[in-house]
Each structure stands twice: as C-alpha cells, then as structure tokens.
Amino acid sequence: xxASFPKLAIVEDNDDLREELLFFLRHQGYGAWxxxxxxxxxxxxxxxxxxxxxxxxxxxxxxxxxxxxYLHQMGGYGLVIITAKGGQQEKLxxxxxxxxxxxxxxxxxxxLGQALETLxxxxxxxxxxxxxxxRHGDGPGGWRLDAAAGRLRGPGDRQLELSQQETALLRILLxxxxxxxxxxxxxxxxxxxxxxxDTHRIDVILSRLRRKARDNGIDLPIRSIFGQGVVFxxxxxxx
Length: 239
Description:
Layout: E1 7-11, H1 15-27, E2 31-35, H2 38-45, E3 52-55, H3 64-74, E4 78-83, H4 88-97, E5 101-104, H5 109-129, E6 144-146, E7 151-154, E8 158-161, H6 164-175, H7 183-190, H8 200-215, E9 222-225, E10 229-232
Parallel strand pairs: 1-2, 1-3, 3-4, 4-5
Antiparallel strand pairs: 6-7, 7-8, 9-10
C-alpha cells in the first residue's frame, strides 16, 4: 500500500453515485475504479488490485454480504459498507462478516474521506506488524496445475493433491482464468458423453475441492457468481 493513498474499488450499482464517488476519491488523490456488480468486481480485481473496497449491500446477483465475507477470508483488505439498508440487523451481520466500516446513505463525503484516511493508516500498521496480512488474492507466484501428477501448486509452493475429476475441473477453470463458466458448460466439457446433463455432479466436485482446500489451509480462488457460474480469480502460471 502506498504511504498516503491506498488503491480503492467501489462496488455500487447506482451509476450516478458510483461516478460521484470515483470523482471525489480521485480528486482526493486515490487510485480508484468502479464496478456495478459483484461479478464485474471479481473479474477486474486480480488485474487491478486494491487495498480498500467500498461495497453496496443491495447489489444485483451476488449481494454485498457475500463480497465482504470472501474478501475478509482472503485477508488484507479494508472493507467499507455503503448502503441504504441501515438497520441494526444489517450492520451486525456486515461487521460479523468482517466489514471495517458501515456507512449509511446518503453519504457525507467529508466524513467518508476522513474515515478512509483512518482505515488506511490502520491497514498500514497491520501490514507492518504482520506482512502476511497485506496480501491480496494470491500474492506473487500464481497457481500451477500439474495435471499428470494430480497436484495444484499455489503461491508459496502450497500444494493440493487432486482426484481425477478435480484435476479435470481445474484444468478448465485455470485455462479460462477470469472467465465465468456456467455449470452446464462445465458439465458438457467434463462429461461430454453423459446421457443427460446433471449439474449436481459439478456441485459435488466443487464442494469436495473447496473442503479439501480449507482442510489444508489453502485459500482457493474459485468464486461462484450468482446466476452466472464459476470463475477462477487467481493468477495462473503457464504449464
């Protein structure tokens, strides 16, 4: 993170508010970009890494709670809720999922600027005390699939042993890194000779793979995009 101005992303489906926020933040010296949905945000995040994310709760498709939860699990992000849903229940849920700030619309931009400065300073202190917390997504190194050995290697030489079906699924997702695959498409690619489509098979493989990764302490960058499909958001090393 830069000493004075961290990089920001705004996930907000209201075009006018998103543009107003971008104008304000850039005028304040921040590098910032915007997305109108969680799907768009995930597609752009790895190519445009950020330090702080401003997130609307009422997004189309995957809502803001899901974005907050996953970013908190990844670690190292400042998470700011900006929402018209200012009830106590929403606030408690957001904070429990890992949000740092909960701001209710209409936003006071001066207060927002001060809150971001405070949050950025705290993130710098946290990163200095524990550099591992400053990582975003994969960090250096990227992911590599050794299909012949049935092994996925991640940043820091983390390794995950894979079944044949898990290997086949990851081969598709890694080759199309940052591309959203519908479960129907994944099923057709993996089980081309099946008599009838059964996307539940994809759900089972994904569930098993995610559980195996969690058991091994690995943050696997596979996202399920509501109503769209599945995407691998990590950096992929050529094999």
